[in-house]
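To whoever is covering the structure queue this week,

Two jobs came back overnight. Logging them here so there's a record in the thread.

Job A:
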Amino acid sequence: MYLTKNEIEIMDVLWKAGRALSRGEILSHSEDKSWMDSSVHILLNSMLKKGAIREAGFVKCGKTCGRVYEAALSCEEYYISTLDSTRTRPDPVQLLAAYIDRIGLKEEERSAMKTILDK
């Protein structure tokens, strides 16, 4: 699945919120967005078609009801899917090593990773 920069900005808002959000909430939680408020409907429809988000019900917004949206996959699942879409499969050991070098790890994160790898 390929998401545009604008769509990823919306996904970031949904991932950080950890719950379903209405269109208005998405707009209010979008801090440094690179898209216009008026294009949020187009972006949400595109993301629904791609399966990145899903409808999670309705909320009352003033006198009307509005849909709420939630991420259909986690941040980690999305980024793993982008690796799956590349032609060359990266070596998992080198990929993990490069990622750790880039972000660094706290001791508790190292311990948790070791536990996962030992399984």
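Job B:
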Amino acid sequence: MSAQHAELAAGRWSKLTLGEQLGNVGSEVGRAGRWREKDPRLHDAAMIRALELMDLTLQDRRWRGRLR
């Protein structure tokens, strides 16, 4: 887990609704798309953050049985 998401993983993420969590994931994916051709390093970093946030969402016990 990156240092950027350590605070979220420590509990703040579990206070967000599913929509808020997925919105944050989508923001990172959108950011990655904007950087794709301009700066591959920033694109890759945004995709890593998106995947980390998706992992946090999948680990959130409130969504067990709702996510596939």
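Note for Job B: The mean pLDDT is 88.

Please reply-all if you pick these up so we don't duplicate work.
Q.
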